[in-house]
Fold this protein.
Amino acid sequence: MRATYRLGVVLAATLTGLTCAAALSAAAAPAGRTSAGSAVADGTAVGRSPFWAAKYHGPSGNSRAVAEAISPAGGTLFVTGSTGATGSAGPYHWATIAYSTATGAQRWLETYQGTDTSSSGSAAAAAIAVSPDGATVFVSGYVTNTGGARTEATVAYDAATGARLWVAQHTSDATPVSAAVSPDGSRLFVLNDDYTAQAYDTATGHLVWSATAAGLDSSSFGAAGAMSPDGSRLFLTGQAFTSTNRVEYQTAAFDAATGATLWVQHYTRPHQSTSSGNLALAVVLSPDGSTVYVAGQNPGGSFNSVTLADNAGTGAIRWARFSSNHAFTAAVSPDGSRLFVGGTHFGVLGAVYDTQARNPATGALFWTHIQKSNPATDTAVTRQYAMTVSPDSAKVFVTGTVDSMGPQGAAEFMTIAYGAAAGGRLWFAPYALSIQGVVGAIPAAIVASPDGSKVFVTGLAQTAAGNWDFATVAYRA
């Protein structure tokens, strides 16, 4: 699983770098706002405290969590990212941690790096996935090997112990944007920012196929990937530049069995000037796999984002909807009744969360909620980065940052739960270190437990010393 990138009274710390926290730092309660048209009014939302929080510093320097995944049984949360330091302190390497979802206790911690162990070596994990039987965790990213060669890499770990099962390196300077395991557990698919894809045998790490999408524009930059529910197709979306420097959404579909390109779609909003840009940042599938939804940004003009519904088999556009927000993320309810698009709205209110629910069949807006999380008299920057939907389709959870921009203006996590049907705000949860650096805390991913009882947010938090740490928080849903 991947998600778009972007803690608290400390009670105890262990030698492994895990810190548990029991309370939130003081933060203003979000003041709900509604949009014109299909707007929703807030109910009496309540603030929510985490039932555990964990921080990982690493051996030195900076640590950044970028992705998370939960075991199918719901007992273990896996978080991955990079850790290390610059300069003479040594290179960056991956760090992957398994936490108990019940307590936040660290079950295991494993690191990985390339053969270049000099201070100039770099490495970063980018995507994580768990096998359907819960036995194996797969992490993909890049490393630097001797001689400075950057290489894409994937590592398989035993989910119970963290033991490394296999390592596969693929000669490429690409960075993964998504990883997914086939429903039968036999294949791991890695989708990359250069519009390439790899399929690995999950038991051995053997490369089954590697492919580059055919029919791409002259310059292509992938941002998000997804697999169809039945595991038969893979989808990769992002941004492309034509030979005339026109900027387009570009979405490619691969045959998961062979890597063959099924279709490539280039999209530019009608009547858009060539100077305007398009950047698709999210791709999700309908539960039956028949429709692929793409959402992203369209700077310039009267609209700032575009959401597309495409025929998953052919790439034909079923509908396109435009909005004034800047879309970052999207999700589909498991029952298929709602498509959610989340992002940031820039306007007279400043930068605020903008969460939308749309009819998946037509794109019609069911509701939209614009949420400024500081009093209206404050200068604030609020950005939404990730979302997920509860397994019963009743709630949608979004997370992002709130930055008051004042003397103590470091960012903090802000997680909000909405009723999926009508959009009423159910609860909100700000989170930050009790003493933090000027950057503050920025979430990267959010995931719900399989039984829908818990929600987990991970990202980074900057300490007062200026270092960045993994920060992971658990809430009752």
Residues 1-43, 373-378 have pLDDT under 50 and may be disordered. The two ends are 20 Å apart (CA to CA).
